[in-house]
Amino acid sequence: MDITNILIKEKTEQAVKILRETGLDCWITFTRESEICGDPSLVFLAPGQVTWHSAFIIAASGQKRAIVGLYDKKAIEDTGAYEAVEGYVTGIKEPLQKFLQQLQPRKIGLNYSRTSEICDGLTYGMYLTLFDILKEIGLETRLESAEKIVSALRERKSPVEIQAIKRAIATTEEIFERVRLFISPGKSEKEIAQFMLDELKKKGLQTAWGQSTCPAVFTGPDTAQAHYSPTDRRAEPGHILNMDFGVRVDGYCSDMQRTFYLLSQGESQAPPEVRHGFETIVRAIEEARAAMRPGIQGVKIDEVARRIITAAGYDQFPHALGHQVGRFAHDGTALLGPAWEKYADKPFRTLEPGMVFTLEPRLTVPERGVVTIEEMVVVTDSGAEYLSRPQKELWLIG
Amino acid sequence: MDITNILIKEKTEQAVKILRETGLDCWITFTRESEICGDPSLVFLAPGQVTWHSAFIIAASGQKRAIVGLYDKKAIEDTGAYEAVEGYVTGIKEPLQKFLQQLQPRKIGLNYSRTSEICDGLTYGMYLTLFDILKEIGLETRLESAEKIVSALRERKSPVEIQAIKRAIATTEEIFERVRLFISPGKSEKEIAQFMLDELKKKGLQTAWGQSTCPAVFTGPDTAQAHYSPTDRRAEPGHILNMDFGVRVDGYCSDMQRTFYLLSQGESQAPPEVRHGFETIVRAIEEARAAMRPGIQGVKIDEVARRIITAAGYDQFPHALGHQVGRFAHDGTALLGPAWEKYADKPFRTLEPGMVFTLEPRLTVPERGVVTIEEMVVVTDSGAEYLSRPQKELWLIG
């Protein structure tokens, strides 16, 4: 059995257990044409895309049912995760109503959330369609957000999931080691990024997010800072170079950053202001990791790192300290972030064992560039452990 | 300027014109973490993904404004499509309210639709968020579906878009020609699919949909019919083999099917029942194409082909005759389909010049396999033209 179907069985069984914690009677993922605008929960429920209106229903009773277009039936049946997969030809309404009338759930969880994009896969048009279908059988008042289920399902990583993430990290670190030998003064951001993509291609793997910014490579001062494609700007002695890169292995991602310094003539180490910046970042990451443990809010961890950066005389970074990683580079709901509007209540969620986070503070060294390291850690029963091999030394070039 | 930014300028300008036809004052695309659950309209508005809550506002007055997270700002500014791109740090509410208070739209179009998945990119959680933001400034009663804008924007293809689709078709046809020489009795569906993917890889291109079913290859009777991964089943003399394949070039897709027959010993042509099936499919496609013209409903075209198939003694195919193609293999709202629940009112939309459709009837020849051809056509001012080189002869192997 391939890893896709192993994971689907594992995660649908985990969903039943989580449902029982939440007090919901069933969880419905309702989606269509998933290639176009799919629900991010679908990867835990089906081995590929679905075409027509599709409902994946998991009940606290342990029942698991999929109702999908006829042509999508067989691949879903093959997962072995459902006791029945119904394939319809003309429309989903009748089989869906029939099944729910038998089930008679008092509380139905749906994939919508103001806070958490990963739990917000139900489109508004699909919500309206489902509402109408349920209204005809008197169940339309029983709808709630399934955010707790979807968050926990993504966040509580199984050993199979952690192993996949470790493989993604190992590949990323290997490519960092290779590009370290490739970088030299005069090489452009584009050339450096292309080298890394070529290395990845040799392995037959994909990037963790869109190739236009994966890797992202920034050299020197006055770059676009982040989320921008590599440019023709060339690495120069005396400048800091940083990169953000992640790969996907068996559906799971890494997301990491590393910082380099290009020595000027006569230098054998980076100048004091660059070293000071680098050491501040290393310290912020290590102290944040040391503060992590189940039950603590993400905002507290963000605070630890943010305070170290500002106390050392730098501006605070304009983003969260760290996000979860999983099927996507940005995954999960709980966030190591400040209490800013755009993060809603994510920073106030508490950490749980099995959550995988990045730690990625950032600061600017004037005239030199941006220092930023991104490590990956997993929350354990009593603290947090590095999944990546942390960068403790500035990587010197030249 | 690369093709991505040319298209964004072209499509945002087209959106202003379409807005004026619809009577809406502005169109808002409101999305976040587009890597996870993005709005399919985003490709027409931004050159890559967005991370935080992002609003793309196009007004009938001609104003075009984007309000996005700070790190996403520069790449969107570079498109040259917006007169202003605002980058925020803590939250979108304030800049979005401020802009809309100035604009004072009476009717605001949002991306939701019961009928059309391609127009349904707004998630329910994001709808609730936007509703709350608008309520504070008294605009929450002015929301409507932007389905007409989004449909027309996707469906009325510009010459630049048609050219990209033609390049995708040409590549697909080239790979069909190659695999025609590769197929022989004893080759498995998986081997045949891998050959095609290797050919595509040499060109550095991607498939039009997920690789697990692109290409889909089916040989002989008793296959999973469609939407299923290639298996270890081997091509055998006396069987029909069909395949479904599409590629993506410069963001635009092809989607095509071809049918082969493996000659048995002593045969110099396919047996009469296979030829009859093949000729019926060819005729259904050609007569459907000949009936296409602006103003006619899709359901009428589906009827032409469906009637030919059933009149020839075959079961009707359990899907639409044809869908639109564009950024996705399944794109657009108007459909050449029957009046079935799952298609909602898509089959009743009328054809317009610039729409690109597949024509893909299907029938089963007992004991032999499935005959299915999928051609691509574009609606012109007075009819419809093939974009693909139609398969008129059964491709014989052996």
Determine the N-to-C terminus distance of chain A: 49 Å
Class inferred from helices and paired strands of chain A: alpha+beta
Strand order of the largest sheet of chain A: 4-3-2-1-5-6
CATH class of the largest domain in chain A: Alpha Beta
Rounded radius of gyration of chain A (Å)? 23 Å
Question: What's the CATH topology label of the largest domain in chain A?
Answer: Creatine Amidinohydrolase
**CATH architectural name of the largest domain in chain A:** Alpha-Beta Complex
Shape of chain A: elongated
- Strand residue content of chain A: 15-25%
Low-pLDDT segments, ≥5 res of chain A: none
Largest interface, with counts of residues having CB < 8 Å to the other chain, equals: A-B, 65 and 65 residues
Question: Got a strand count of chain A?
Answer: 20
What's the order of the H and E elements of chain A?
A: HEHEEHEHEHEHHHEEEEEEHHEEEEEEEE
> How is the main sheet of chain A built?
6 strands, mixed
Average pLDDT of chain A: 95
Output the CATH homologous superfamily of the largest domain in chain A.
Creatinase/methionine aminopeptidase superfamily
Give me the oligomer status.
homodimer
Description:
Two copies of one chain form a homodimer. Helix content of chain A is 33%, strand content 21%. Chain A has 398 residues and is α+β, with helices and mostly antiparallel strands. Chain A contains ten helices and 20 strands. In chain A, helix 1 packs across helix 6 and helix 7 crosses helix 8. In chain A, strands 4-3-2-1-5-6 form a six-stranded mixed sheet. The N and C termini of chain A lie far apart (49 Å). Chain A has two domains: 152 residues, Creatinase/prolidase N-terminal domain (Creatine Amidinohydrolase, Chain A, domain 1); 239 residues, Creatinase/methionine aminopeptidase superfamily (Creatine Amidinohydrolase, Alpha-Beta Complex), CATH 3.90.230.10. The first copy, chain A, is elongated. In chain A, a hairpin with a 6-residue loop joins strand 13 and strand 14. Chains A and B meet through helix 2 and helix 5 of A and helix 2 and helix 5 of B.
